[in-house]
Amino acid sequence: MVVDGMTIFDTAPRDRSSDENDHDAERVEREPARLAIRRPTVADGAAMWRVARDSGSLDLNSSYSYLLLATHFADTCRVATLDGDVVGFVSGYVLPADATRWFCWQVAVDERARGRRVAGRLLDAVIDDLPAVTSLATTVTVDNAASRSVFRRWADSRGATLTETDGFDAEHFPDGHEAEPLLVVDGVRR
């Protein structure tokens, strides 16, 4: 459902009951958490930085860069909130030389929101709001199986094709960074 420009999802409640100390413990049912996806604001920049830092797998950019993403690139970035707290984000931009391709810079989901397809929903939200975009590109290291899986599942969910080509070789990086092949998802319109 869309409310005031935010996509709202009801997520399934998790079983948080434990009977390790009391075999007769009552099962406590919690209301489903409310997941919302929206454009970021300057107030979200610090939270985006924290989610990236805590991911353990992303290259952490300066806090200033996340403030710029949340303001200058708000039309091409999204944040996911769970009961009002930022629990994920996707950052990216439309390529200046190709208005049909969106480049995904980073996508990160906080541990407490994983397993709810948040990364895919973030990608959907951006792409669905960019009608001229027909493809997505990103770079991902060969050993980042989690990110590669996100993009493969997302491409499959949209009936799109995913291909891999040369991106940035290790020697392009001045700091010993691994190579980042380019993943391209074509045919993202449903």
Q: Total strand count, please? A: 9
What's the name of the CATH homologous superfamily?
Gcn5-related N-acetyltransferase (GNAT)
* Pattern of helices and strands: EEEHHEEEHEHEE
SSE class: alpha+beta
Query: Spans of 5+ residues with little confidence (pLDDT < 50)?
Result: 6-31
Q: Can you tell me the CATH class?
A: Alpha Beta
Main β-sheet description: 9 strands, mixed
Please report which band the strand proportion falls in: under 5%, 5-15%, 15-25%, 25-35%, 35-45% or over 45%: 25-35%
Strand order of the largest sheet: 1-2-3-4-5-6-7-9-8
Q: What is the alpha-carbon Rg in Å?
A: 18 Å
Domain N-acetyltransferase: 35-180
GO molecular function: diaminobutyrate acetyltransferase activity
Pathway: Amine and polyamine biosynthesis; ectoine biosynthesis; L-ectoine from L-aspartate 4-semialdehyde: step 2/3
EC number: 2.3.1.178
Q: How would you describe this protein?
A:
It is built from four helices and nine strands. By secondary structure, it is α+β, with helices and mostly antiparallel strands. It has a nine-stranded mixed sheet. Belongs to the acetyltransferase family. EctA subfamily. GO terms for molecular function: diaminobutyrate acetyltransferase activity. Its EC number is 2.3.1.178.
